[in-house]
Hints:
Number of strands: 13
Strand order of the largest sheet: 8-7-6-9-10-13-12
Shape: globular
Structural class: alpha/beta
Strand content: 15-25%
Distance between the termini: 41 Å
Amino acid sequence: MAVKTWSTSFRKEECAAIPCTLCRSCSFIPHFNGYVRCSSCSLVQVNPQPLPINISERYNNGSGQEYLAYEKNNEAIFLRLGELALQDAGFFDLEADLLPAGPRVLDIGSAIGALPALLKNRGWAVQCVEISVPQALYCRERGLETSTLPLEDNHFLDQSFDAVIASHLIEHLNDPGSFVREVHRILKPNGRFYITTPNIDGFQAKIFGSRWRSAIFDHLYLFSAKTLRLILEQSGFTVERIKTWGGLAAGIAPVPVKKIFDAAVKPLGIGDVMIVRARCQ
Length: 281
């Protein structure tokens, strides 16, 4: 079954030009679909960008209930994809050493809480952050402690968590650099950060260009493995593993053809989506 990438409806928003979040350059060249590429570090981004208040409104006013319905309709497949991604990143191998001590995990962008609920059942102490209020309420109904504030506004204590997970989130943020620095602050030494995001150097992005399914209104940044590694290393992380997957999206090719492409791109590191595991130094 094909799952359509969620995006809120296009709307006119107040925007402001900003320097590149990765290298602070103010020199950009056109890319596609309203995106620009930084002339210095090659990070692809929307610039000028909508203000943070606009971003919050995208997932609440008017669209919140639609987003909730989308997540509920796709809960099983999204949970399975989340598990497979963590497996690729070696999460469950490291988990075995942590569980006896009652480890803490922060899941940022929790949606309806399927993955954090799974981790809670496995023995983790779970904290969720979800700015979409309808989804945050759903998380709370599942018994998950959930904040609707952006990460930086929660003021978690230093070195609070053994692991932080952010799945399909960083590309939605106005300032991913600030976000990564805050994650580093709240992680314990040797804690792990797991980030899942679309891969602009992937096969599908190269083939489809402006028609790529991740080049959408809601994605303010489109990372490559190189630019994601750089933003992590700038904040003191060591990247331990990068894995990609997804050769062709479901529904655009016969299943046997999709399986061939999916198997081919994974060892080459040109899958449509990537997960990065980074260690807090």
